[in-house]
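Action item from last week, closing it out:
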Amino acid sequence: MYKRFIILIFGILSLSATVYAQSFQTVRGTVKEQNGNRPIPYATIVLSGNDHTMGCTTDSLGNFVLSRVPIGRYDIHVSFIGYEPVIIKELLVSGGKETFIEVEMIESQTVLEEIVVHPRINKQEPINNMALGGRMLSVEEAGRYAGAADDPARLVSSFAGVTQSVGNNGIVVRGNAPKFLQWRMEGVEIPNPNHFADVTSFGGGGFTALSNQVLGNSDFFTGAFPAEFSNALSGVFDMYIRRGSNTSHEHAVQIGSLGVEAASEGPFKKGYEGSYLFNYRYSTLSLLSFMLPEDADGTNYQDLSFNIFLPAGQAGIFSIWGVGLIDHSGTTPEPDRNKWKYEQDKQNQDVKQYMGAVGIKHKIYVGEDASIQSTFATTINNIDMHTELLGNDDRLLPKNIVRNTYLNFIALSDFQKRFGRIHTNRTGIRWTGLRYDLTFADAAGHIGDLVEIADESGFSSLVNIYSESMLTLGNKVKMNIGITGQWFTLNDRYTIEPRLSVKWKFAPRQSLSFAYGMHSRLEMLNYYFTKDENSRMINKDLDFTKAHHVSLGYDLSPGENLHLRIEPYFQWLYDVPVIPGSTFAMLNLQGNEDWFISDQLINAGNAINYGIDITFEKYMSRGFYYMATASLYDSKYRTSDKGTWYDSRYNRHFAVNLLTGKEWMLGKNKQNMLGASGKVTVQGGDRYSPIDAEKSLLQQEAIYNERNPYSCRFAPMVLAHLTISYRINRKKVSHEFAAKLINVTGYKDYYGHRYNFRDHTVEAEREANILPNISYKINF
């Protein structure tokens, strides 16, 4: 089978290689006002790079077309009198697929006597026009940057303030647990969109279910984010599915060591702007079992994403979008008892998971200065996990059970209105209906005798109302001020959270910023239904975990392709759930055994995270780019006694990244592209609590000394990643070969400690996860 596959690929390449004429492609786009519905006619479009310069102007509807653009990488400059110019950086034009961009321009406050305004660079600012902080993520970067491996969650690990391990893609922002991050799709909070989510990392997983074939450019927020974002403490990953092509039918197929995927997009009919887009992927890790942890053999997953774009004239714009995944993993006992060394050797575990989110979005413009956007969506996520141990009599004895299904119904609507050039307001309401059906049971050290921790089904709601205003005070000062409120009907808890951010461009290419926000987040629903021995729910009144977050920022652009950002910050968390009389705090949750918390929790803990993030980036020019980031921080917490401060689980103290890459245009007509990217990360080692050797020997399992939690740590992590790709461009088709390697240095991840039955010792469980994705993709 593989031999035929290789012959087929080389056959395709040999046929395509007979076309030696230079290949061209079409670049299309629209230009409109950022805060309104008005298209900008006759704007100037200049495309430059790759030793070519081309230009055109938009038509009366703000549309433009650049035909016969040579294959390569370009910058696009957009300008029009009375508006701030915009630069779109690093735009890739390739064979087999037209390029489409949307440009939003801001009215300039400059009067005729003032100096020309410097252009906005799209990579420096978020897509969200009501936000002053955050960063726009290019999905193309997820394929190009080493260490990203087509995964947006792994891509952000290159940014300052973010740390991550190798074995999962959980995003740790400024010392906060991954579970404090909110995932959003098309404005809707969705369940963790990763394969094998919440198994080893609450908030993370193994691989993303969001293919870069369908994702559009998205925003990543850390720290004090605007009022429209609620139920998040550390950050927000605000993602969008791009619009399919409405001019031509285009397809892609990729085959690699992590599986097979296929994508298709195109118009419904000629002359109609509507389009479809979908991507399906199936994967099995059995081919890589020799390079993955022992329990990864037999793991498989699949996912589907789609977007249907349906403009309806004066009735507005409709879109139907969705994402879903199905996973299966597990382990079986080692049949030879003489080989038993750890508990995992006699463990039988089966894990089935699925997740889905589907929404209908409608946007209608009210005049030229206002719009209403509404979405109705439903999300579902389920995990069915049971774990057993093989006893001495060859019977499987239950160890624990997790069965939960969360079905959410979401309705949201916002009204955005521009009041002249100075003031734009967005006000909205969001209702989330929470239907739950969950069962948790654990043997708690007595294998075979399960104790029920939670068994509940029902319905509750989370209501959010917000309003925020963007004020533009001349060309130098912008301010976002807002307020958001949440109400959790299960226990009648609520929060009211102010938000403020200011950005001052005090000199050409320099700015200062300040941001403050109060934020809050619910715990996972199962913890609210923990029962004691009398079947009484002891945690139902648990409040939101809350935080005040303050940050300062300094930005400098010493050149068009250089950017420096320095951002010190301070975060104070309070009402953190803790177990009275212990050092346990919910902000240290990771996964695995953390499902089975049977103690009473109270909102009496605190935590502080403070530090400084530094980024120096060179955007791609002449094929070369790099980014260096450094984060120095401290993350500590205390429990209900308000006494000793402890290191949190995620307190690595420092993280340094150096990423660089180069692209070369090769071939007779310089239309093929060879790309290489490398990344090196050095960050503080994993933390763990000291082992109580005496109790561990007595109970024959790893017992931690929790009087000094997370006081031990391993040596600093040194990680290296590599991406190499070669793209062959032809008139109507492109081929790409890629090798994307994560952890080429073979760093061993830490998974906890385990008891060795042979040696009667406790050992750190560490394994090297080397993730290679060798792939071939064809676009046609």
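Closing note: Residues 1-20, 111-117 have pLDDT under 50 and may be disordered.
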